Amino acid sequence: MAKPTTRYVCQSCGSVFPKWAGRCDGCGEWNTLIEEAAPDSAPKGLGVGKGRRLEFVGLSGASEPAPRRMTGIAEFDRVCGGGLVPGSAVLIGGDPGIGKSTLLLQAVGRLAQDWRCAYVSGEEAVDQVRLRAQRLGCAAAPVDLASATNVRDIVATLDGGDCPGIIVIDSIQTMYVDTLDSAPGTVAQVRASAQELIRVAKRRGVVLLLVGHVTKEGMIAGPRVLEHMVDTVLYFEGERGHQFRILRAVKNRFGPTDEIGVFEMGDAGLSEVTNPSALFLAERRGDVSGAAVFAGMEGTRPVLVEVQALVAPSPLGTPRRAVVGWDSARLAMVLAVLEARCGVQIGANDVYLNVAGGLKVTEPAADLAVAAALVSSLTGEPVPADAVVFGEIGLSGEVRAVSQTDTRLKEAAKLGFSTAIIPARRSGGKGDLSLRTVELHHLGELMPLFQTDGGGSRGRGR
Ligand code: TYD
Ligand code: MG
User: Fold this and answer.
1) Whole-angstrom distance, CA of residue 192 vs CA of residue 182
2) What is the torsional sign of CA 46, 47, 51, 56?
3) Angle between helices 187-204 and 151-159 (to 10 degrees)
4) 380: Cβ–Cβ under 8 A, 6 or more apart, which residues?
């Protein structure tokens, strides 16, 4: 049988198929398979050539780690794990227009005071970038600016004598390697371009900052195909309607991955939000039913957010469940536990759940806050305005302990809350806080807090 001369490559995950299909079997995305020429020959085995024996070394060595390059933007530095590591490649992914170029231009504007910085834009002309720099107030920073898309030129520049310490490539989807036939933005080009750039960055000890657009449409290769090649993957996310932007580390070879940095987009670019809890709670009205303040953790930092629920009678046969900022499967579980273990009738109602401020909460510790918001909406009785709630809920209705209770309580106390509805603590906890704690063993103990007659005990106050 003749060898196939073309193959179909998924532009989202990189899977290869001999036949076209509407949906990629690898990642489930639609319309992402693109025809490409098959490589001339299959990779060969090693053959007969002899290898060189490796020289092994010990884990501890004399080499001092090079100092990290700090941007001075504390939110950015923390997410990177304490500054940028020389010779590392960082991918900053995000939806188009979310503010990646703005963030990186601000970062190199600061870094340029200590290091030589280069900014290569494949998307915008030099004048456009200059205009933006003026708006951001960093036009005076000594950043080397160029508009280029050919990777060969960029590699030659980095290999030249006076190589910068930090280079931004905006974006990797506009770059191309001239030995490949496929168009810029395809998986093959994005991978090859990134590989060449990363290789030269490692060789020269340059910090490589790659911008990658997340594409819904799937016609252009997204940052996913690069995640395994780079050292650090940061995602810049946020709701377009909100001015908050969250920088989240999803992979980091040089630091923790659960850190977030919070920014606010304004007229003069992005500004740091050092106290996100105050920001997320700024528009809170304490006296409405269906809202509970969740004391969550994002990495090492406690973040308080408001969880809002609306339970309303449904005109539909299959009631609606709509969730923003939380996991809908988790909501279904909390609803089921409330029904089956606590006798709360929610089934025939529409349920809407929203995490205010555009934050996405992933912790199971939010279960109890969600349950409190749901029950509060159902009964019409507000959660006490001065209370924060957190705790995981098990399938039998038990309220389970979560990590870092003290950090969460401290943050709540700092922001003026005086009550915490939390899982029962085995050790009894440290009583040095001004907070009153209401400790629950079972979800059923939450119900008395919302009895409309007002006579319900407030749990077992300590
Ligand atoms: P940008 O950094 O160009 O997004 P990306 O590189 O991720 O595609 O951000 C563009 C958006 O940011 C645009 O919608 C306008 C907004 N913006 C501001 O609100 N204020 C500013 O000072 C700047 C520079 C941009
Ligand atoms: Mg951009």
Assistant:
1) 11
2) positive
3) 0
4) 289, 452
* Angstrom distance (rounded) from CA 85 to CA 81: 9
Burial letters 161-176, b for 16+ CB under 10 A, else e: eebbbbbbbbbbbbbb
Enter the tokens of residue 114. 């200590």
> How many A from CA of 132 to the centre of ligand 1?
9
In the chain, count H helices and then E strands.
9, 21
Query: Could you give phi then psi for residue 121, rounded to 5 degrees?
Result: -105, 125
- On whether the CB atoms of residues 35 and 8 are closer than 8 A, the answer is yes
What is the Cα–Cα distance from 410 to 303, expressed in whole angstroms?
11
Closest ligand relative to 236 C-alpha:
1
pLDDT at residue 244, as a whole number: 83
Tokens 């997410």, residue located: 79
Pocket flag, ligand 1, residue 265 (CB < 6 Å): yes
Q: DSSP states of 233-260 as a string?
A: EEEEE--TTSSEEEEEEEEETTS-SS-E
* Closest C-alpha residue for ligand 1 atom 13: 97
> By C-alpha distance, which of 115, 117, 100, 107 is closest to 73?
107
pTM: 0.78
Query: Mean of the pLDDT values across residues 304-316?
Result: 92
Ligand in nearest proximity to the CA of 174: 2
pLDDT at residue 175 in the model: 93
C-beta of 405 in contact with ligand 1 (< 6 A): no
Q: What pairs with residue 90 in β-bridges?
A: 209, 232
Residues 189, 12: Cα–Cα separation, whole Å:
13
Residues 6+ apart with CB under 8 A from 221: 11, 12, 14, 173, 185, 186, 187, 189, 190, 191, 215
DSSP symbols for 106-125: HHHHHHTTTS-EEEEESSS-
Task: Kindly give the number of the ligand 1 atom that is closest to the alpha carbon of 100.
Answer: 7
Q: Whose CA is nearest to atom 15 of ligand 1?
A: 97
Q: What is the pLDDT of residues 20-61, one digit of tens each?
A: 999 989 888 888 888 877 776 666 777 777 888 888 888 887
Nearest CA to ligand 1 atom 22: 269
Is the CB of 416 inside a 6 Å radius of any atom of ligand 1? no
193 lines ligand 1 (CB under 6 A): no
Is 137 near ligand 1, meaning CB less than 6 Å away?
no
